[in-house]
Design brief:
three-stranded parallel sheet, alpha/beta, 28% strand, eight-stranded parallel sheet
Length: 220
């Protein structure tokens, strides 16, 4: 209600409390351009799988989400060609993989991730945390969230990608992740790889064919 009663609000930062009692947090605004969602560093109390975050802001140009606690994150609308930073735990609050149980909850989670990716499919710049990437399950032979299922507009408008992984991530998973973008993103201009990928992997990635001739590789 606070956001809804601010018709000219352009920038909003929300720092949430793990102990809050809200079952759902909605950010609905026709004027909002920048949104930062964070949470206090407290692992003793988790919001739970029934907590929902909804974002409906058609003019939103910059979005940064840091959420390891909510069961569902729903994007209704953001601006085309937005810049997004995604640090969301798609594996669930207990860290269990999405394909651990083939039940309704797992299917619902997969659908939520697909819908989430679809709603951010027109972004031009994206940074993804290693925690978020674990939800895509690159270590599995059968990946429930296949990157090939991402809508065509995702690969046609994305221009800048920054990737970083944890030291425990398998080299094979790093390769699968990194080569996807230059092979499929026709508009990609720059792919930034953190030092966590290792020199050998970075050298291999630089040699692979890229769909966009303008694409350059940067290490940082």
């Amino acid at each position: 209600m606070l956001v809804a009663t601010c018709p000219v609000l352009e920038k909003l930062t929300v720092i949430r409390d793990p102990f809050e009692l809200l079952g759902i947090m909605r950010v609905r605004s026709k004027s909002l351009k920048t949104l930062t969602l964070g949470i206090e560093d407290d692992q003793d109390c988790l919001l739970g799988d029934d907590h929902v975050v909804e974002i409906d802001a058609p003019r939103l140009e910059h979005m940064s989400l840091c959420d390891y606690l909510s069961g569902s994150i729903i994007i209704h609308s953001i601006a085309p060609y937005a810049s997004v930073n995604i640090d969301v735990n798609f594996e669930g609050k207990d860290g269990y993989a999405l394909d651990q149980d083939d039940d309704d909850d797992s299917n619902s989670k997969r659908t939520m991730i697909r819908n989430f990716l679809t709603r951010i499919s027109t972004v031009s710049r994206m940074a993804i945390s290693s925690v978020t990437l674990q939800g895509f399950e690159f270590d599995k032979e059968e990946c429930p969230i296949k990157l090939s299922s991402v809508p065509p507009c995702f690969v046609s408008s994305l221009k800048y990608v920054e990737l970083a992984t944890q030291g425990t991530t398998r080299p094979s998973s790093q390769m699968k992740l990194a080569i996807y973008f230059p092979r499929n993103c026709a508009a990609l201009k720059k792919l930034t790889l953190s030092g966590s990928f290792g020199d050998d992997i970075i050298k291999k990635i630089k040699k692979i064919p890229r769909r966009s001739r303008r694409c350059i590789f940067v290490t940082g």
